[in-house]
Design a protein that fits this description.
Number of strands: 5
Helix content: 25-40%
Strand order of the largest sheet: 1-2-3-4-5
Number of helices: 5
Strand content: 15-25%
Order of helices and strands: EHHEEHEHEH
Structural class: alpha+beta
Oligomer: single chain
Radius of gyration: 14 Å
Largest sheet: 5 strands, mixed
Shape: globular
Distance between the termini: 31 Å
């Protein structure tokens, strides 16, 4: 696999990010163009991993205090005064187990330090995703 870079997501990435998101269902929920644009507009952290062939992965996070309709986001809002909610992350099948996910999370952690007291997320139990469970445990998530 060729090297990749991380960079801030832009409007020009929308089609590739949408396709990657929807290819990652059921591990994330499907989106349409308008919903993705709304999530991006309220995001506090939007990063893509890219190589010469295109987008390899992305992470989208929403800070506390936004008018986000997610029940999971609301759950964290009821329990934490300030947080950054990792709404969705996806890595292209050609890049899985090649360090892209870890790089996206390491970048997120580095950029979040001092800005938000905690990063929150949830993982789906149905269907089971033991690879995601192991990854998040290894990254220090409970």
């Amino acid at each position: 696999m060729s090297e990749f870079v991380l960079r801030a997501g832009t409007a020009a990435d929308a089609a590739a990010v949408l396709a990657l998101n929807n290819a990652s269902v059921p591990h994330v929920n499907a989106l349409d163009e308008a919903t993705l644009a709304q999530i991006v507009a309220m995001s506090g952290h939007y990063t893509v991993a890219e190589d010469a062939e295109g987008i390899l992965g992305f992470v989208l996070c929403i800070p506390s205090g936004r008018a986000y309709w997610s029940e999971n986001y609301a759950w964290f809002g009821e329990r934490y005064d300030a947080f950054l909610y990792l709404d969705r992350v996806a890595v292209h099948s050609r890049a899985q187990r090649r360090g892209v996910g870890r790089a996206l999370y390491d970048d997120l952690h580095a950029r979040s330090r001092g800005r938000w007291p905690c990063i929150t997320l949830e993982v789906n139990l149905r269907p089971p995703n033991p690879v995601s469970d192991a990854f998040h445990l290894a990254m220090g998530y409970e």
